[in-house]
Design goal:
Layout: E1 4-5, E2 8-9, E3 11-17, E4 26-27, E5 30-34, E6 37-38, E7 44-47, E8 66-69, E9 73-77, E10 84-87, E11 96-101, E12 104-111, H1 114-124, E13 129-132, E14 161-165, H2 166-178, E15 193-196, E16 208-211, E17 214-223, H3 242-248, E18 259-266, E19 271-274, E20 279-281
């Protein structure tokens, strides 16, 4: 049976897709799943002239770009710019560009063309390209001891799912407010699945969990970075919550890491997940 707490059964309270890595997320009521994770999640990437991925760590202005998905189109919006629309579907005729993200190099992605490159370059102030996952893309997960044959990922950092409980954020915000700091929203942590009804940091202990059609296997904790200090609306950067998290959420195995949230891998690789789905710890 699913664990319970004073707020009632544990359930999925929020579901978020990040169409372009490091750009703003979309809240959705339901999402299908394929081999790479939530359909539409991090299927696009902004890269520099050398093909290396750009991210909010070094370019916080990325947070100011709004994303929206229709059945066929990715739309990017930003203050002072005309909306940009890009086809979601892979294009066999698109030129391939070799790109790299973290330790994954030599990935083949489809270049989305000059118009998206110019739009992003003008807004960000850097030379860049927008690329999309297509038929030539292959990226196995690089986590020995955790991953299995068939575990692949798109343009996410390392895993297809990030789970955080509302209670974990509430516990952090209690500490922030006690310090005289402002509470922060969940979007600072850019999760896919937000769970309600579980105790704070219960997700740290889950090795396998069922949410709707999905069965998820734990991949390990999410080590946080300066992106958590970046306002996801304005792109402005502060000190918290990273400074506070460093006082009580350091990884016991590697104290250089400060953890918040848990990565998960889905099995099987199909299904649908919906807000309000029950969460069952297996």
């Amino acid at each position: 049976m699913a664990p319970r707490c004073v707020d009632g059964p544990v359930h999925l309270a929020g579901l978020f897709i990040h169409p372009v890595k490091s750009l703003r997320a979309c809240a959705v009521a339901s999402a299908n799943v394929d081999a790479l994770g939530l359909v539409g999640d991090r299927r696009f990437l902004v890269v520099d002239a050398a093909g290396r991925f750009l991210m909010q760590r070094t370019l916080p202005r990325l947070a100011c770009i709004v994303t929206a998905l229709s059945a066929d189109t990715l739309t990017l919006s930003a203050e002072g710019a005309v909306d940009l629309r890009v086809p979601r579907a892979p294009d066999p005729a698109a030129p391939l560009r070799t790109v790299g993200i973290w330790q994954s190099d030599g990935l083949l992605a489809e270049d989305c063309g000059a118009a998206p490159a110019g739009w992003l370059g003008d807004f960000l102030g850097v030379e860049c390209r927008l690329v999309r996952i297509g038929a030539a893309f292959q990226r196995p997960m690089l986590k020995p001891g955790v991953t299995r044959p068939g575990d692949v990922v798109g343009f996410a950092d390392a895993y297809p799912f990030l789970v955080i409980s509302e209670a974990s954020l509430a516990a952090l915000n209690d500490r922030l407010v006690a310090r005289g700091e402002d509470a922060i929203p969940m979007n600072r942590f850019r999760p896919n699945l937000v769970v309600s009804g579980a105790p704070a940091f219960a997700e740290d202990t889950w090795s396998r969990v069922r949410i709707g059609d999905l069965v998820l296997r734990a991949g390990g904790p999410c080590s946080r970075c300066v992106i958590t200090t970046t306002d996801q609306i304005t792109g402005e950067r502060g000190r918290e919550p990273l400074s506070l998290l460093a006082t009580y959420r350091r990884d016991a195995a590697d104290p250089t890491n400060v953890n918040f949230g848990q990565h998960f891998i889905h099995e099987p690789k199909t299904g649908t997940v919906r807000v309000a789905d029950p969460v069952e710890v297996l």
